[in-house]
Amino acid sequence: MHSLGRFITLEGSEGVGKSTNVGLVCELLRAQGHEVVATREPGGTLRGEAIRELLLNPDEQEPLAEDAELLLIFAARAQHLARLIGPALERGAWVVCDRFTDATFAYQGAGRGIDRQHIATLEALVQGTLQPDLTLLLDMPVTAARERVVARGTPPDRFEGERGAFFDAVRRAYRERAEAAPGRFEIVDAARPLEAVQADIRQRLLARLTRWNT
């Protein structure tokens, strides 16, 4: 789908610092002279952001069915790919995305218990063979990550309000996916101070850029 641009994703559970480090990755890439598009999932487009609101709204007057949640996520992803990610990659821009399909396998597959073959079927339908060129997995113990979420002092969304066992399953699934695709993933210890985490990300990203440029 793309010949010039690169697709980089940041993954991890709630509280690991993805949003903060998306900015760092974009800054490093722009310093290398690349056009960079920063985006997020679910969301990234006007319609995608509207779907995000449906997904994150904790109002349980009408609980969201698990299959409905999964289909909404892929509906937002289809729009995201068609309207933002695909065109950006095709013109040679680099796309940095806060979460992508790895999150669906972790959250809806492991967390919700949805059959992973169902997710894989939707993945093939919506994105074909497209996969990120690099995925930075920010990993840390669940308890410490949840403490960070609580420290924000904001009301939890539908996912942040889940119990610890849910996030244990999410973390295991992320690590399993990283172990299954070591050429794509870089696992970053996100439990360290931000300066150490960002120094690690910077080193890994610059090493990857060197490999891509040779």
Task: Describe this entry's structure for a reader.
The protein is an alpha/beta fold. 56% of the residues lie in helices and 12% in strands. The chain has helices spanning 18-31, 46-56, 66-90, 101-111, 116-127, 142-151, 164-180, 194-212, and strands spanning 7-11, 36-40, 94-98, 134-139, 185-189. Helix 1 (18-31) packs across helix 8 (194-212), helix 4 (101-111) packs antiparallel against helix 5 (116-127) and helix 4 crosses helix 7. It is globular. The model has no long low-confidence stretch (mean pLDDT 92).
Concise structural overview:
This protein is α/β, with parallel strands linked by helices. Helices cover 56% and strands 12% of the residues. This is Thymidylate kinase.
Instruction: Summarize the biggest pleated sheet.
Output: 5 strands, parallel
Tally the helices: 8
Query: What is the molecular shape?
Result: globular
On the 0 to 100 scale, the average pLDDT is 92
Cα-atom Rg, whole angstroms?
A: 17 Å
Question: Could you state the order of secondary-structure elements as H and E?
Answer: EHEHHEHHEHHEH
Poorly predicted runs are none
Strand order of the largest sheet: 2-3-1-4-5
| Structural class by helix and strand composition | alpha/beta
What's the N-to-C terminus distance?
21 Å
Q: What percentage of residues falls in helices of 4 or more residues?
A: 55-70%
Number of strands: 5
Sheet-strand content, in percent, reads 5-15%
EC number: 2.7.4.9
Protein name: Thymidylate kinase
Family: Belongs to the thymidylate kinase family.
Keywords: ATP-binding, Kinase, Nucleotide biosynthesis, Nucleotide-binding, Transferase
